[in-house]
Amino acid sequence: MESRGWSQLWLDYESKFAASGVANGTERKIVIECSDFDRNNRVIKSAVSELNRAFADATKEVKISFVRNEKIAAQGYKVGNIIGGSLNKPQDGDGFIIEASDENGLLYGTFHLIREKLMGRDYPDISVSCAPSNPLRMMNHWDNMDGSIERGYSGRSFFYANDEIIVDDRTVDYARFMASIGINGIVINNVNVKWAATDLITTRFFDKVKELSDIFEDYGIKLYLSLNFAAPIELGGLPICDPLDEQVKQWWKNKIKEVYDHLPNLGGFLVKADSEGRPGPFTYGRTQADGANMLGDIIAPYGGIIIWRCFVYNCTQDWRDTKTDRARAGYDYFKGLDGQYHDNVILQIKNGPMDFQIREPISPLLGGLTQTNQMLEVQIAQEYTGHQIDLCYLIPMFKEILGFKTYCKSDNDTVADVVSGRTMGNKLAGMAAVINTGNDYNWTGNDLAAANLYGFGRLSFDTELSAEEIAREWVKLTFNLEQELEDKLVDMLLRSREIYEKYTSPLGIGWMVTPGDHYGPSVDGYEYSRWGTYHRADHLGLGVDRTDKGTGYAQQYYPQNAEMYNDPHKCPENLLLFFHHIPYTWKLSSGQSLIQYIYDSHFEGYEEARKLADEWKSFEGKVPERAYNCISHRFDLQVNNAHEWCDQVNSYFYRKSGIADEKGREIF
Amino acid sequence: MESRGWSQLWLDYESKFAASGVANGTERKIVIECSDFDRNNRVIKSAVSELNRAFADATKEVKISFVRNEKIAAQGYKVGNIIGGSLNKPQDGDGFIIEASDENGLLYGTFHLIREKLMGRDYPDISVSCAPSNPLRMMNHWDNMDGSIERGYSGRSFFYANDEIIVDDRTVDYARFMASIGINGIVINNVNVKWAATDLITTRFFDKVKELSDIFEDYGIKLYLSLNFAAPIELGGLPICDPLDEQVKQWWKNKIKEVYDHLPNLGGFLVKADSEGRPGPFTYGRTQADGANMLGDIIAPYGGIIIWRCFVYNCTQDWRDTKTDRARAGYDYFKGLDGQYHDNVILQIKNGPMDFQIREPISPLLGGLTQTNQMLEVQIAQEYTGHQIDLCYLIPMFKEILGFKTYCKSDNDTVADVVSGRTMGNKLAGMAAVINTGNDYNWTGNDLAAANLYGFGRLSFDTELSAEEIAREWVKLTFNLEQELEDKLVDMLLRSREIYEKYTSPLGIGWMVTPGDHYGPSVDGYEYSRWGTYHRADHLGLGVDRTDKGTGYAQQYYPQNAEMYNDPHKCPENLLLFFHHIPYTWKLSSGQSLIQYIYDSHFEGYEEARKLADEWKSFEGKVPERAYNCISHRFDLQVNNAHEWCDQVNSYFYRKSGIADEKGREIF
């Protein structure tokens, strides 16, 4: 165990050197040519520093040239071994060239080269060029200043403790890791801005935020803050925070000037308004655009942006009310304002219309908005997908999301096109993830959950990468496995999302989780609640009718999708219960009845979870003991969880339907 | 509003004087003759002080004589107006006599006289004698030293804040109120003894506990402490707390000597062992008797007693397991040890086998044990009965409990007989309530919940009092109402328990509450949990088979009761689902089917809750505004709660059974 309290994730040079039999402390033989870039630039310095660490095992001199190439897109790079040579066993004079038009590109090219080296690709495919798919590639921290993390499953915050900001060596490592996967923006505080976090835009915290911001800047990352829309009241002592009130605007003008005086590199603000009890423009009869534009106009002179979340819905619904549909809310609130948002405002839209379930349709706002900057929000914190206890590699889900054809145009109409800015030619576009980190030794609670952290960054940088490519990269970088085990682990990752889906809520209905906590089953846990998340199961069937005869949600899509979702015979079966109320006796394409599918998938999911746990046993002695034990313990918990899900869901539906399992398995 | 921060409950002399038109500050004209008792005795001093306050409105001289009468039972009294005269309008020389064989009896007689006066009985029926039904009449506080109260619905603790003990004027008033209803023992800390509370038996807190104990002693009340069975480990640094280990015994010997050196008037200890995660003798393969007797033997020389709770069950049950039955646990664990407990040990037994539900059968341990000291535990903190939001006057329930014929003997076999010691001639016997107080102005959250506080004390002193008599006393003492409203309020109280039962869980099945919190409905909330509290509803019926064909729980009763409970045709219908799994189509004696009964009772309960709220409106201006508003607000909440219960339970069973309401009312 290293003396520091955290792992090096996919940049664990020492472990790689050890695996290849190289002694530590070898004299560095790296020579960097850097005539095109300013060697004193902070980002260039970081690139040089990282190369020195990554090539510390080189026994011969390696030459690396930084070349400016204005033809390369912003933040993109080309990497080549034009000088010739091997990454891991260089001869004297061997070398590599990294081209970019800017420093960020240079840094990303550097990490590309390092990845190749760490993956052991000795004569690697490094004659590549790569431009980032998305201009904005962001992480959203839901860290609170008391050190807790909303939906955090990896320990406490490494940014905060006891209402103070922490800046230490871990902060630097964190920035390195984020840059290494292409992240260029980080929101450091929870979107629910309360208590001390409201003071992040005051002199109480400016100095420490500036220290963080400087570290981020070293790695080409902009720091963003989540904003309390009621700050004019809470900080300014004003009676209101009406975005059209002159006093309020003046307060924000002064405040944002003050902020930029202290934090000149600040990227901007993320705002959750009028959602789940947060203040917002609705209080004053103003629109979401009124709120966002007011802040956008004020921040524009500083080059800042306003990221406005679209997670607005009625969270005090009466469960008896079958007309109101939470799924409709985003589109209903935001579509009508399309075109009214100013240029430096961007809407951040969750991938689905509900809330990060294991299976949801794509939010109809994505592409539904055609004249508004928009970015995709996903959640790698496994709130509803197993709390970083259960294995759930999410990149396959994100690939599905990005590949979804919206029909908003005749071409370039996938979600990937929309959120990258390709569809509409926006400059402000991208992807954000609610991050899954904490101060655990392994950063992500379950070591394997780091695949989602790594994967989101890589995918946001290059949406063409496949889920398998990303998984394989991460496995190669993280562990030192023989081929068979590498293949096995990649396979486990790739199967994991479907397994989790099988033993939890069926066919897109979602929820059925323990209220509040969101881990483990409670089929009726949200059924009679205020949250708008119902399965509507009765003795004949279940599912929510969101067709034109029901809540009409399906009509929020472009016609091709609307027709598909509206018809239970055309609707993708994995979303059947999201869109339709279906009898238990309904025949699925497999020939199974719905109820039999529920039984079968749950028994299978539980069985497959046990298989995962069993497969993991073959990694004993092949990965670091600490990781092995941590993951083993979590697989044990996952098996228990899958068991509970399986038996509770099956028992619930058996008791409700009275229809026995065809295969006569034990249901309680 | 008085300047003090708490009300005077049923001893509100000022309000009574004001209601009868007497000015405050009238010169006291009371003369107390006290030749038989020591005027300097602390209890006698309290009696004198209380009489002075209560007769402060007297315009003529009133003479009161304290007379020792050794023929009167311990703590009993006689009160007479043998000198003649009126309580509220005395003539010079009018007077009263209070006889007792001890100081406590004298004090209780004093309060009897005062009650009569406050109730406005001018020439009252005060030629009475009364001996307490129960030797022990106790309140159990579940107050924690951080100031929180486990299952507290009336604010924070008035005993503790921030791990310190509070002693102030409120403490004195609390002791007065408790003495006025006959309470003679108070456990001041939560049975779950953790953190700072473990230190209550150390020098850290002795001084302050002694101050509390002294105040209690002024009012004839003994202070008791809940004990951490693991104290030898946590305080003593021993590796174990095995009750048969010599080192452990020696530690307790020293500790208890130390405790009595500092707290010579301590009544003894209450122990929750081997329950819900608490430590206990089971850890060491010892019996509950081993644990209790060890402590009992050590405390005996000091005159102390050990009160040992019987709330022991498996709280990590698998919901799939239909053989294990939590209801059986108390009897299974304790019956086999009958006769093994030492003389100064008493078992404290919850009224039902589960946990303070709105309707449960009587614990078969009560009377099932025939050679063991035993006392009844009830809960006036409304954990499962409406959180002191919903009106639920519990004395009718306690009367049913006390009146239950156990058949443990040919006569004197009711629960009242058993727990008073009459059945077996025990000296150690009685009743305890988990108290419903906190530091709210009105002490009990809902002003009307004070009827349970008052009622429990009065009932434990005189189990022959009817629920109506007690309700009327409390109403007369607390408010100054005209007859019609007094009758109405008494009637509301008397109906309230049945109303609450109607809109919550039906026919004795219990639970169906929000997990953890226990307020509001969640039909399946505990159905798939580890707590052993299931309703086993499926599409055909519900209820738990506890007959000889099921878990066999019914067989724990004496034959007459066992036969009754075992047969669904003989079983009292209000307990039908506790003992039997019954189809929805089962015909009840009313002719209703079970499912129709569920629908009807829930609609009725909701309707009746609305009626209660409506009736309360007629009290506006007739009770203090503060109380009126507080109670009105709670009735509003109760109506919402009843609405949720009604709709959720009905919808749940409609969705599950598919059987429509015969009356076509709206079910969701």
Structural class of chain A: alpha/beta
- CATH-level-4 superfamily name of the largest domain in chain A: Glycosidases
The most extensive interface between chains reads: A-B, 23 and 23 residues
Oligomer: homodimer
- What portion of residues of chain A is helical? 25-40%
Low-confidence stretches of chain A: none
List how many beta strands of chain A DSSP finds: 17
What is the number of independent domains of chain A? 3
- Count of DSSP helices of chain A? 18
Strand order of the largest sheet of chain A: 6-9-10-11-12-13-14-15
Between the first and last Cα atoms of chain A, what is the distance in angstroms? Answer: 46 Å
Enzyme class (chains A, B): hydrolase
EC number (chains A, B): 3.2.1.139
Protein name (chains A, B): Alpha-D-glucuronidase Agu67A
Keywords (chains A, B): Glycosidase, Hydrolase
Write a structural description.
The structure is a homodimer of 668-residue chains. Chain A is 34% helix and 11% strand. The first copy, chain A, is of the alpha/beta class and 668 residues long. Chain A folds into 3 domains: 9-130, 2-Layer Sandwich (Chitobiase, domain 2), CATH 3.30.379.10; 136-478, Glycosidases (TIM Barrel), CATH 3.20.20; 502-544 and 581-657, Alpha-glucuronidase, C-terminal domain (Alpha-d-glucuronidase, C-terminal Domain, Alpha-Beta Complex), CATH 3.90.1330. In chain A, the strands form 4 sheets. The first copy, chain A, has an 8-stranded parallel beta barrel with strand order 6-9-10-11-12-13-14-15. In chain A, strands 1-2-4-3-5 form a 5-stranded mixed β-sheet, covered by helices on one side. The longest helix of chain A has 33 residues, at 625-657. The mean pLDDT of chain A is 95. Chain A binds chain B through residues 319-320, 521-525, 528, 537-540, 644, 647-648, 651-652, 654-658, 668, and chain B through 319-320, 521-525, 528, 537-540, 644, 647-648, 651-652, 654-658, 668.
